[in-house]
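Quick note —
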Amino acid sequence: MSKLEGTQAVLAASEAGRADAVVLRLSNVIGAGTSPSSLLGQVAAQLRAADAGQEAVVRVSPLRASRDFVDVRDTADAVLAAASLPVGGQVINIGRGEAVPVRTMVERLLAASGKPARIVEGAGAGVRTHTGLDWMQVATGTARRLLGWSARHSLDSSARELWRATGAHTAAPASPSPSPAQH
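Predicted structure written out below.
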């Protein structure tokens, strides 16, 4: 509700001439700076905490969801484009325009780490049963048309950047793992 109310407030201020503003609706942003409390942030922390030379056991909630992931660098490019173009009063989706299984992103992060690891899925706090709400793909045509923007970085590159960035501040994994539907 708060996102909807915020969007409505920005659009109303833009329409009334009180603000030159645009709403960028971001899909699931990944890469350097990914929150340690997010699913991928927790996976990275579990991998970092694993003993060297041992197979890491990555414990996650059931990986049923599919999400539209977009690289943080692409997101920054979209913000810069929106700030420099006359697109006030618009709502623009920022994403890749494709639904990717969350399991695939976890596997890409495991590959980026180069560590031997296996995924163990289990029920945990906040896990929802599978519903049609476990799938998200955003329409990106408005971003292409108004901003001349589209995602450029591969998801493998995003996973590598996330992994690289977590090396500077390793932390013990948080528990319990949130549901992928929360990301």
